[in-house]
Design brief:
Helix content: 25-40%
Number of helices: 7
Order of helices and strands: EEHEEEHHEEHEHEEEEHEEEEH
Number of strands: 16
Shape: globular
Radius of gyration: 20 Å
CATH topology of the largest domain: D-amino Acid Aminotransferase, Chain A, domain 2
CATH class of the largest domain: Alpha Beta
Largest sheet: 9 strands, mixed
Bound molecules: 4'-deoxy-4'-aminopyridoxal-5'-phosphate
Structural class: alpha+beta
Strand content: 25-35%
């Protein structure tokens, strides 16, 4: 399916409120609470060789995101995990992106909507690389966003909530209009936080340094990459990072389910050379996402 086909005109199956429906029939009304008041949370997962990497972690986070936004998903985690697998199979893709979304329905249309149903849909599509594959090895170019990640008492930052992406979209639009691939966002205190849809890591004298996730998403890929680094005896330091420090780091990369491990070559005036640690972790991550598959296949054939 060419990438230019609008998302509402693609083919296949979408899981909606408990059943698979033809892709073109997976519709909601314009008077949907989620659309007006951002009462919506979602996940981004990737299937490799037909199996969703870290499915349990993603499903757990989806339920926690919904709980934080005071929404109760009318299924259990096992059912939603199974439904994600079911859609991957129905779409017939080996490698694919999986998007569950939970939102308040149309039963009530005001800020408070305790009687609105909690609805859930799961769609699967092919999304080869978040960033242009030709650019990926060279490293992507980041600018710095004008918007700041809000403080914990301003926004429910532990929820992967649609509303939190408003400033991400604005920042990424501006970055792309200025010729960059993405934007690095600082937090409400001015510390380095993350990119618009991925976490950030730096290398300083053989050590991995990454911001403490105290006001932005503690990504599942971030945690996987930290574990992979430690398995290689690469020290990992989580701490606040001031913008003035950017010039001290030799390497920089982003992590995320969609972005995987993506080298960064510049953040405005600062230059980075994707080197040994970035390459090692890119490689180890791609091995890890496939390894889980082979151990399951081994179990299945035993
Ligand atoms: N931060 C933001 C804002 C994101 O959208 C994502 C992607 N979900 C991440 C970080 C990385 O999270 P994960 O590794 O769990 O995909």
């Amino acid at each position: 399916m060419p990438e230019t086909v609008p998302f509402d005109q693609r083919k296949g199956w979408i899981w909606l409120d408990g059943q698979l429906v033809p892709w073109e029939d997976a519709k909601v009304h314009v008077l949907t609470h989620g659309l007006h008041y951002a009462s919506s949370v979602f996940e981004g997962e990737r299937a490799y060789s037909g199996r969703i990497y870290k499915l349990e972690e993603h499903t757990e986070r989806l339920f926690e995101s919904a709980r934080i936004l005071d929404m109760k998903i009318p299924f259990n985690e096992q059912e939603i995990g199974d439904a994600c697998n079911q859609v991957v199979q129905a779409q017939g893709f080996e490698d694919a992106y999986v998007r569950p979304v939970v939102f308040r329905g149309s039963e009530q249309m005001s800020v408070a909507a305790p009687r609105a149903a909690t609805r859930i849909a799961i769609a699967v599509w092919q999304w080869p690389s978040y960033f242009d594959p030709a650019q990926k090895m060279k490293g992507i170019r980041l600018t710095v966003a004008d918007w700041k990640r809000p403080s914990p008492e301003t926004a429910p930052y532990k929820s992967k909530a649609a509303g939190l992406y408003m400033i991400c979209t604005l920042s990424k639009h501006k970055a792309e209009a200025e010729g960059y691939h993405d934007a690095l966002m600082y937090d409400h205190r001015g510390f380095v936080a993350e990119a618009t849809g991925a976490n950030v890591f730096f290398v300083e004298e053989g050590k991995l340094v990454t911001p403490t996730p105290d006001c932005f998403l503690d990504g599942i890929t971030r945690r996987s990459v930290m574990a992979l680094a430690r398995a290689r005896q690469i020290p990992v330091i989580e701490r606040h990072i001031a913008p003035e420090e950017l010039g001290r780091f030799s390497e920089c990369f982003l992590t995320g389910t969609a972005a995987e491990v993506t080298p960064v070559s510049e953040v405005r005036e600062h230059r980075f050379t994707p080197g040994r640690i970035t390459e090692t972790l890119m490689h180890d991550y791609m091995e890890d996402v496939r390894k889980e598959v082979s151990s399951v296949n081994l179990r299945a054939s035993a």
